[in-house]
Amino acid sequence: MEIARKKGGPKVREKAERVCAIAKDNAPVDTGALQESGHVEEVVPDEVFNVVFDATGDDGGDSYARWVEEGTSKMDAQPYLRPAILGAKD
pLDDT, tens digit, for every residue of 31-54? Predict the structure, then answer.
């Protein structure tokens, strides 16, 4: 799941890292895989960074990070990334 995308140098890298850390703290823990999957990807050197959570189940299928964040018809949402973005605002 890729939500936070920022552009523009070292301060933006720091903010992306802060968002990722807050989201990891916010993420619900069952196996810990969701927390462990969180990372920052540098898309364009020193310009564009993505905060990514891409945990998959034991079967190695698609990431379930989105469904935890947004919920499903059978499971309530457990937002962790959007609140982190809002919490990291200066």
Answer: 899 999 999 999 888 788 999 999
- Residues with Cβ within 8 Å of 7's Cβ and at least 6 positions away in sequence, in order, are 44, 47, 48, 49
Sheet-wide strand order for 48-52: 2-7, 48-52, 39-44
What is the per-residue pLDDT for 12? 85
- Distance from C-alpha of 19 to C-alpha of 44, rounded to nearest angstrom: 18
Instruction: Give residue limits of the domains in the chain.
Output: 2-87
Residues 31 and 53: their CA atoms lie apart, in Å, by 14
Note the residue count of the chain.
Answer: 90
DSSP 8-state class, residue 63 = B
